[in-house]
Design goal:
Layout: H1 3-11, E1 18-19, E2 22-23, H2 24-37, H3 42-50, H4 69-76, H5 78-89, H6 92-95, E3 106-107, E4 114-115, H7 119-139, H8 141-157, H9 164-174
Length: about 180
């Protein structure tokens, strides 16, 4: 984790934003650590730490305005910031269904732009999504009970995009959700 990224998170108030399992800061650090434990490359680990900077389709609180993307690039690098933007920009309703399809359309919720992402971009997105959702499900029995079966169905569909470590963690956390 870069000191610069942590400083921006602190300046943006991530330690004071409630999130399942404590604060947004704690969640972001856990997601980053989970990705690292799965053997993710450093850019994806950094993206995990910063994935909520621009808000998401499921968590609308933005820590940094899109007009300030250069600040995040400075802190974590171009590749990691690109992953953060891609993750944050996802229109889930329009994009999730076709993620495993080589011709599946990804819709940017900020611009409305439709694109067909590369396999690597789809794998990174799936891995980051899994880390994010599994962190929440692992610490919140309520979330696991309410959404676990749906998450397991989603990640089962996305299995071709997930690393072996991510899939095993998914089965470990969500396997309990369907019993």
């Amino acid at each position: 984790m870069t000191a610069e990224a942590l400083a921006i998170l602190q300046a943006a108030g991530a330690e004071g934003i409630e999130h399942p399992g404590g604060t947004l800061m704690a969640h972001l650090q856990r997601v980053s650590a989970l990705l690292a434990s799965w053997g993710a490359r450093s850019a994806l680990v950094s993206a995990g730490l910063c994935h909520a900077f621009y808000g998401t389709d499921g968590f609308p609180v933005a820590l940094l305005d899109l007009g300030r993307r250069a600040e995040l690039v400075e802190a974590i690098g171009v590749e990691a910031e690109t992953l953060v933007y891609f993750y944050a920009s996802c229109d889930r309703k329009s994009s999730y269904r076709g993620l495993t399809d080589d011709r599946g359309t990804f819709v940017d919720r900020f611009t409305g732009t439709r694109m067909v992402p590369s396999l690597e971009a789809r794998q990174d997105f799936a891995e980051l999504t899994a880390a994010n959702e599994l962190d929440i499900a692992a610490i919140s029995p309520e979330v696991r009970t309410r959404y676990g079966a749906d998450l397991l169905e989603l990640f089962t569909r996305w299995r071709p995009l997930l690393s072996g470590s991510a899939w095993e963690h998914c089965r470990s956390v969500l396997g309990r959700a369907v019993h």
